[in-house]
Amino acid sequence: MSLYVLEGLRPWVIQRVSAVYIVLFILYATYCFFSADNIAFEPWKNWFYNPFNTTVVGIFVLALLFHAWIGMRDVVLDYVHNIMLRIFILAMLVGVLIGSGLWVFRILLLSVVG
Amino acid sequence: MSDKRPVYLNLLKIRLPLAGIVSFAHRITGVMLFLALPFVVYLLDLSVESEQSFDEVQQILGQPAVVLVLVVLLWSIAHHFFAGIRFLLIDAEVGIEKTQARSGAWLVLLAEAVTILLIVYGVLV
């Protein structure tokens, strides 16, 4: 098996590794949500400020973006056969994903700085 | 092969087995969650910005139409979550036997129904 063959395996692996992380994060976030005394601005922001939570949220968003990219890419490749339309939609997807990612990155940084 | 072979793609007439429905719903929910992503990020931004914007988020999430969207999104998350775990297990060759795969699909539907009921119960009580 050449390395080139393994190329196709990489998205498959990323999809599953990110899925496992997302599952673990959702379990952790759900636990935090239901063990919270009250839902208000201060406790929510304190939760977000916590370095551990900022880190795991950051990794979660990164995992989510890769997961969403591979999933949406597969859907587009399955159903959109016109090559120009395909390139257009894929470019839009990348734009939305990178935009959302940078936006969250900014929110996370502000929570660290502010 | 002749190009005239019949292509029968009337989606309403194709009867998918349960595992097929779970699989296709996994796709649809994935796309819906992707479409929701920018709005969720926007709400996240508002929620950590200030006390006022946090209240704003709570107001937005309290509107009946938004609650409806929220229920659909939570349902999507529940389905994508449990069906995804099922696929991971199938990748690990757990439950690939036909009858097991079938009951696995039922289990996914059961789990997401319980999850949604718990959430609705939690919101109402």
User: What is the CATH fold-level name of chain A?
Assistant: 3 helical TM bundles of succinate and fumarate reductases
Q: If you average the pLDDT of chain B, what whole number results?
A: 89
Instruction: Name the shape of chain A in a single word.
Output: elongated
N-C termini distance of chain A: 52 Å
CATH classification, class level of chain A: Mainly Alpha
Radius of gyration of chain A: 18 Å
Order of helices and strands of chain A: HHHHH
Report the largest inter-chain contact.
A-B, 25 and 22 residues
CATH topology of chain B: 3 helical TM bundles of succinate and fumarate reductases
Task: Explain the layout of strands and helices.
The complex is a heterodimer of chains A (114) and B (125).
Chain A: H1 3-7, H2 9-35, H3 41-49, H4 51-79, H5 83-113
Chain B: H1 18-49, H2 51-62, H3 64-91, H4 98-124
Question: What is the structure about, briefly put?
Answer:
The complex is a heterodimer of chains A (114) and B (125). Chain A is mainly alpha-helical and 114 residues long.
Based on the model shown, name its key terms:
heterodimer; A: 114 residues; mainly alpha; 3 helical TM bundles of succinate and fumarate reductases; 5 helices; elongated; B: 125 residues; 4 helices
